């Protein structure tokens, strides 16, 4: 019995003594992880495509409320249903840190930053060329700068994260608003220098013109006025940009109509239609997987029209409702009447 116990003890000591902490390190051989997901150009492009998705979700398509914060947060409209917390009239409750208005934008914008940081930090180990790495970094830094620019506008000073977070972190420190805007400028300046030109990118893809356009705004925000002029002039003088003066696009032959009317027809927003006014056009396709548009979901498509159009559900004429609410493109649509024009906007502006 003593011999058996001694043998077992000896075997355990050999096995346990020969193991180091590296024995516990995961090596992804049959599943995707950050360590093996940024090797090829296709890998990198997939992550960059996610940045487009996150920006679209933040500003256009999350639901029928949150993208509209950028309108209700101004003095253009006020809430026609003032007692709720999903819009801005009851500011004490709506702007509480635990509410959707404050938390959703924070989360989406930092998700954008986190994704951009992962791309940037993983690029050195990728298999693509140095030129491709530079372009990918420029794209990631454009989105990171865009996110920090927005965070600074919404929250002032926020924590600056410039590297991938790979383990729990609890010691975040708030930078000043000036520092955040400076970082946004640094990122977008890099993007403007290294992104491809507008005439060489696909519809909906960012370019150096989009970066210079954003730069002009950031220079204004940091009181660098001549640089703002120079950046804006770069966009204006780009041979790929220009105001539309002649009929174009999907319904150019219809009469009556003019070039201004053409700008708002279906499929006429992209540069592929001949529209040279578009610098960066967010892509939304109705009832297409990943397209973020739906003819049946009330909170995905035409949210601006839904907020502005009057609520006709309860309109009665001789006991009947002449509107086919909530459906019908020509019989009232699904307006909810939330966005009421302020007197300042309607009477003064």
Describe the structure.
The structure is a single chain. This protein is an all-alpha fold. The protein folds into four domains: 36-179, Serine Threonine Protein Phosphatase 5, Tetratricopeptide repeat, CATH 1.25.40.390; 195-241; 243-274, no CATH class; 302-349, no CATH class. It has helices at 2-17, 41-61, 69-72, 91-94, 100-122, 130-155, 177-194, 208-221, 225-236, 259-262, 303-308, 343-348, and strands at residues 77-79, 285-286, 292-293, 339-341. Strands 1-4 form a two-stranded antiparallel ribbon. Helix 2 (41-61) packs antiparallel against helix 5 (100-122). The N and C termini lie far apart (96 Å). 25% of the residues are buried.
The DSSP helix count reads 12
- Structural class call reads mainly alpha
Low-confidence stretches: none
**Per CATH, which architecture of the largest domain?**
Alpha Horseshoe
Number of strand segments: 4
**What spatial form do the alpha-carbon principal axes imply?**
globular
Average pLDDT reading = 87
Quaternary form = single chain
Provide the descriptors you would attach to this structure in a database record.
single chain, about 350 residues, mainly alpha, Serine Threonine Protein Phosphatase 5, Tetratricopeptide repeat, 4 domains, two-stranded antiparallel sheet, two-stranded parallel sheet, 4 strands, globular
